[in-house]
TrEMBL record:
Highest taxon above the source species: Eukaryota
EC number: 3.2.1.26
Annotated keywords: Carbohydrate metabolism, Glycosidase, Hydrolase
Protein name: Alkaline/neutral invertase
GO MF annotations, alphabetized: endo-alpha-N-acetylgalactosaminidase activity; sucrose alpha-glucosidase activity
Leader sequence segment: none
Region feature (Disordered): 31-62
Keyword Hydrolase part of the UniProt annotation: yes
Presence of keyword Cell cycle: no
Top-tier EC class: hydrolase
Cellular component per GO, a single term: mitochondrion
Matching Pfam families: Glyco_hydro_100 (PF12899)
Function comment: Invertase that cleaves sucrose into glucose and fructose.
């Protein structure tokens, strides 16, 4: 057995910040039953894909020898449980040098958290040995003959083909109850056509598949956030393999050191997107490699903060829908969850429990004045913390992280419920706020000047209903309504049950503004004139009522459907879905629509946008099988509420009990 470390250097090429992963590995993607040690044969570069150990082509040596630290790179490569054996630090170039010693160093992997020791211990895993997986009893469904057979799969030995199974929670895999409409058939075909294969296996879907688009930029890549509705559509159809592959490949990408110029962003960062490239090797040989983008190529060099959060959310959904929990139990996957959450929970200068991010760090990936504590990120952060708490195996090494997750969950939900919420009553309070209050029990804690209440809101705020504002900073409330953040707060129970109801009441009451001719507006209202010039930096793509600036994004339909099902408002979801259904196919599945009511196809919208197609399909499947939705949303967690009230009681503000929690926080 040979482990080979390859340095591939090209003296003429400028060192690139990129790195590539090539060739899939059965043991990497395979069942948890397989030994997960990193003692593998080297597979030489220069072959086309075939089952076997992975070849990983990593970033080239950094510019100065002092920065080059193979041990650091390797420590991220050999995450416990990963199978990749042969490593290459590559510059898309030339030769290999073998080094066994470095590889052996890595069999014991220690991932140091960057979080305050008060909160966490180090994540330490010995020798890359996976934890024993629980036995799994499942029912195999023979698709053609509709015969069910009970199969006992021990130690997570479920193979990829076993994914079309009955969920142990008793939920059956979706089978269409009726003949699909032509538009649905077309959508499924387009979704299948968008599938990206890596070494023969499906690993994701391209962002858009527009045949007329001569400059696809990065729309020919697999975006992490865009893949979520595709993944759900596949999962709900009983197809788990593509999702499993996606989760494992993106996990592997997370491990790598990445650089933007001379700076390396945090270790747990997940890429915004990746592309499968075919690279030429010696002679006429080629090889497929995965080429991720962590923002170093993205327009504006924006950090994809939401990628890791979506990855965790999807991992949970995969377990819930397929019943295959062995994936989340794998040691490498557990480490991946910890890395994402550690990065989010790391101490900084923050005074708030909400996550502080730069502009463009989520679905709105351009400058739109959402830097600070945007709602969308907070809602995704909250649900990934809940997922983490659910999926993390509690051991001595993880118990501090779990404690920190619980603390953050309760602090975050209190903060958002209390300070982001606006309705008629709250607006009236803000309107009469006193300012410059210097004290511990100030009413106007963030020193909001009532003068900043925008004129549009004075008219717009309804008697009934309310919503969570877009952002909160010292002396600043961004009163815009952001759809994804509000919907995801409903879905994850970041907001209270009453607030959830009020949010949907607001959407219903403001139907023309938020839904109009095409569901759903990304935010309301648009920035216009001077505000647009200053806040977007005169962005010609984000002009008023276009793209991120008040454009309408049909992909948001699936989150809307999910929120509506959760809140028993199926009527609203049906109305929105049927409106989308009547147009999307004829309009060739645009990425977004423009104008105040979403009348026109977006001026620079891609056509055949995959998450438009997948969002529609996921909504249709959920509407047809509303019981499935419960696998994807969260109910109120009273334990968290109690923790929050008890924390507040220490400061003498509230009484500490569950009853008090319900009555004082859920008002
Ligand atoms: C745009 C969107 C972003 C999406 C990407 C690919 O940049 O703003 O959210 O992920 O396109 O579809």
């Amino acid at each position: 057995m040979k482990n080979i470390l390859c340095f591939i250097c090209s003296s003429t090429m400028k060192p690139s910040a990129r790195f590539l992963i090539s060739r899939t590995s059965k043991s990497f993607l395979g069942s948890a039953k397989q030994p997960l040690r990193s003692n593998r044969t080297h597979s030489s570069l220069g072959n086309t894909c075939r089952p076997g150990p992975a070849t990983i082509i990593a970033p080239p040596p950094p510019p100065t020898p002092a920065r080059f630290n193979p041990y650091r790179l390797m420590s991220t490569v050999f995450r416990p449980g990963f199978a990749p054996p042969s490593i290459a630090f590559a510059n898309r170039g030339s030769f290999c040098v073998a080094s066994r010693a470095v590889v052996r160093q890595q069999h014991s992997t220690s991932v140091e958290t960057r979080v305050n020791e008060n909160n966490f211990e180090r994540i330490y895993v010995q020798n890359g040995i996976a934890a024993a997986a629980k036995p799994l009893v499942v029912e195999r469904i023979d698709k053609d003959e509709n015969i069910r057979e009970v199969v006992s799969v021990e130690d997570g030995s479920a193979e990829e083909g076993d994914l079309n199974l009955r969920n142990p929670e008793g939920v059956e895999i979706v089978s269409p109850r009726r003949e699909e409409s032509d538009i649905e058939k077309e959508a499924w075909k387009l979704l299948n056509d968008a599938v990206v294969r890596y070494c023969g296996s499906p690993v994701g879907t391209v962002a858009a598949n527009d045949p007329g688009d001569k400059t696809p930029l990065n729309y020919d890549q697999v975006f992490i956030r865009d893949f979520v509705p595709s993944a759900l559509a596949f999962l709900l159809r009983g197809e788990g393999e593509i999702v499993r592959n996606f989760l494992l490949h993106t996990l592997q990408l997370q491990s790598w050191e990445k650089t933007v110029d001379c700076y390396s962003p945090g270790q747990g960062l997940m890429p915004a997107s990746f592309k499968v490239r075919t690279v030429s090797l010696d002679g006429d040989k080629t090889e497929e490699v995965l080429d991720p983008d962590f923002g170093e190529s993205a327009i504006g060099r924006v950090a994809p903060v939401d990628s890791g959060l979506w990855w965790i959310i999807l991992l949970r959904a995969y377990g819930k829908i397929t019943g295959d929990y062995t994936l989340q139990e794998r040691v490498d996957v557990q480490t991946g969850i910890k890395l994402v959450l550690n990065l989010c929970l790391a101490d900084g200068f923050d005074m708030f429990p909400s996550l502080l991010v730069t502009d463009g760090s989520c679905m709105i990936d351009r400058r739109m004045g959402i830097h600070g504590h945007p709602l969308e990120i907070q809602a995704l952060f909250y649900s990934s913390l809940r997922c983490g708490r659910e999926m993390l195996t509690v051991t001595d090494g993880s118990k501090n992280l779990v404690r920190a997750i619980n603390n953050r969950l309760s602090a975050l939900s209190f903060h958002i419920r209390e300070y982001y919420w606006v309705d008629m009553k709250k607006m009236n309070e803000i309107y009469r706020y006193k300012t410059e209050e210097y004290s511990l029990d100030a009413t106007n804690k963030f020193n909001i000047y009532p003068e900043q209440i925008p004129l549009w809101l004075m008219d717009w705020i309804p008697e009934e209903g309310g919503y969570l504002i877009g952002n909160l900073q010292p002396a600043h409330m961004d009163f815009r309504f952001f759809t994804l953040g509000n919907l995801w707060s409903v879905i994850s129970s970041l907001s209270t049950p009453k607030q959830n109801e009020a949010i949907l009441n607001l959407v219903e009451g403001k139907w023309n503004d938020i839904v109009g001719h095409m569901p759903l507006k990304i935010c309301y209202p648009a920035l216009e004139n001077e505000e647009w010039r200053i806040i977007t930096g005169s962005d010609p793509k984000n002009t008023a009522w276009s793209y991120h600036n008040g454009g309408s994004w049909p992909t948001l339909l699936w989150q809307f459907t999910l929120a509506c099902i959760k809140m028993g408002r199926i009527d609203l979801a049906r109305k929105a879905v049927s409106m989308a259904e009547s147009k999307l196919g004829a309009d060739r599945w645009p990425e977004y629509y423009d104008t105040r009511t979403g009348k026109f196809i977006g001026k620079q919208a891609r056509l055949y946008q995959t998450w438009t197609i997948a969002g529609f399909l996921t909504s249709k499947v959920l509407l047809e099988n509303p019981e499935k939705a419960s696998l994807l949303f969260w109910e109120e967690d009273y334990e968290l509420l109690e923790m929050c009230v008890c924390a507040l009681s220490k400061t003498g503000r509230k009484k500490c009990s569950r009853v008090a929690a319900k009555s004082q926080i859920l008002v």
